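To the wet lab folks,

You asked to see what we're planning to order before we commit. Fair enough. Below is the target structure as tokens, and below that is the sequence we designed to fit it. If anything looks off to you, flag it before the synthesis order goes out.
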């Protein structure tokens, strides 16, 4: 009888080794190798020596597949399944592709299960809802699926009673659905047995870390289990054409739990993020084989589930900052969507020997650079001042176009002078104090004009885009930070 083999796998990157190693040669982490048992497999000696089984396998492979020229591949339209959620369809690139496998990750309690549950309930009920965003899903494309889908929701974390209570809170008509099936199971072999019996149109696994297969002798959630279960679900999705959505856990560092190969296996990786103390959630695409990774979806957490935010600018802007110093409005871009962000700054004398520099929703290292530019190029001394930056609404942004508004808010708080209402700005600030051009300037200006702003400060280089064009808002091109501050504070 074949003996079980012992292998060692790095819990950080998934690197395998026949023996224990203190430092992983792939990722450089220490003490990350864990012992796993590998189930006995059929000997591969016949394959190496060219035996009859090996020749048979090789012959079949040659008969069933052959290399083809690119021009010989037939063109075909990519059919997609609409999820009846404009934000989720936007992030997926226009809907769910049949046979694809999607991984959704996020912090505990952020709303991953709630988002998928309300989505699959709408699919199972077959309700034809009006889209509130994604340009009404491009005026309801012809490939959109309107008929109810048979959904199999596999839960390894919650009981059927818990899911029923949540479903009735999100969608009271859910209990009337005959095509939404719940399975509370953690055995992969049992799950596949039910899939063969039910023949679903969509499978949801909540979560991949709770599923285990009998082929691997380790606990659920281990590197070997996550890898084998994800590979088996991938083979099922590609051979059957049934899309699979996986929910994944997040480590304390903010990365997806499990081996890195999990992200390579799936077709799409979506990150669900936000602050639990705020109601807004952001859906980002990290990897997408069927669309762009620059798309972004925004939701608002409500009592009855997640609500799509079609115009985030109106919700993110506060109407109560008139006459208050330290507030500047920036025309930002997240993904391909423009919206206005409220940047807040507080500058005060340092109470201790070392001044504090803290940023919420903004890169703190970039904040330090902007403060150095403000002190060196503009001449404002902030060496003995505490500086606190906050992006209102609990959002996080990496858009370089926020630089100008950060500097304006800091200076406004420092001199205790509010910025006049009706002004917004965008522009990247360089180390020499120049205002560099930003991308998608037309969308930024249109968004500011749509929300009633009368003035916007933009980089001078971007003015060539607006030659002989009416924008509905007064443009103020600047070349240096000093010019922008002179426009705001005189």
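Sequence we intend to order:
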């Amino acid at each position: 009888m074949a003996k079980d083999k012992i292998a060692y796998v790095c819990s950080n990157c998934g690197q395998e080794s026949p023996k224990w190693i203190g430092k992983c040669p792939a990722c450089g982490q220490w003490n990350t190798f864990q012992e796993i048992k590998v189930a006995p497999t059929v000997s591969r000696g016949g394959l190496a020596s060219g035996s009859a089984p090996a020749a048979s396998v090789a012959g079949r492979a040659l008969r069933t597949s052959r290399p083809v020229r690119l021009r010989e591949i037939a063109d075909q339209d990519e059919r997609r399944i609409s999820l009846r959620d404009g934000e989720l369809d936007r992030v997926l690139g226009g809907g769910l592709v049949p046979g694809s496998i999607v991984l959704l990750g996020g912090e505990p309690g952020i709303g991953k299960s709630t988002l998928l549950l309300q989505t699959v309930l709408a699919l199972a009920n077959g309700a034809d809802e009006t889209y509130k965003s994604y340009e009404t899903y491009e005026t309801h494309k012809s490939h959109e699926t309107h008929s109810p889908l048979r959904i199999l929701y596999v839960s390894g974390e919650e009981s059927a009673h818990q899911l029923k209570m949540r479903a009735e809170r999100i969608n009271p008509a859910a209990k009337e659905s005959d095509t939404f099936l719940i399975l509370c199971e953690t055995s992969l072999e049992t799950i596949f047995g039910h899939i063969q019996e039910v023949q679903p149109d969509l499978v949801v696994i909540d979560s991949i870390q709770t599923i285990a297969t009998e082929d691997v002798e380790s606990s659920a959630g281990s590197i070997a289990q996550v890898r084998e279960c994800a590979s088996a679900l991938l083979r099922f999705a590609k051979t059957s054409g049934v899309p699979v959505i996986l929910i994944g856990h997040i480590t304390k560092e903010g990365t997806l739990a499990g081996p890195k190969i999990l992200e390579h296996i799936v077709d799409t990786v979506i990150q669900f993020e936000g602050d639990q103390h705020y109601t807004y959630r952001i859906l980002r695409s990290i990897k997408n084989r069927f669309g762009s990774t620059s798309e972004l979806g925004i939701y608002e957490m409500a009592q009855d589930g997640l609500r799509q935010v079609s115009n985030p600018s109106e919700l993110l802007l506060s109407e109560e900052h008139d006459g208050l110093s330290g507030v500047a409005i920036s025309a930002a871009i997240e993904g391909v969507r423009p919206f206005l962000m409220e940047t807040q700054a507080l500058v005060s004398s340092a109470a201790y020997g070392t001044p504090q520099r803290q940023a919420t929703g903004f890169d703190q290292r970039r904040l330090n650079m902007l403060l150095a530019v403000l002190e060196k190029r503009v001449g404002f001394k902030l060496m003995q001042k505490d500086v606190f930056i906050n992006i209102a609404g609990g959002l996080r942004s990496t858009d370089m176009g926020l630089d100008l508004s950060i500097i304006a808010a800091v200076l406004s708080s420092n001199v205790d002078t509010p910025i006049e209402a009706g002004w917004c700005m965008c522009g990247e600030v360089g180390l020499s104090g120049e205002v560099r051009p930003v991308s998608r300037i037309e969308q930024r200006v249109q968004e500011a004009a749509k929300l009633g702003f009368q003035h916007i400060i933009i980089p001078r280089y971007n003015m060539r885009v607006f030659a002989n064009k009416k924008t509905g808002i007064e443009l103020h091109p600047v070349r240096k930070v000093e010019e922008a501050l002179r426009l705001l504070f005189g």
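Structural context that might help your review: Confidence is low (pLDDT under 50) at residues 42-62, 128-145. The radius of gyration is 27 Å.

Thanks,
Computational group
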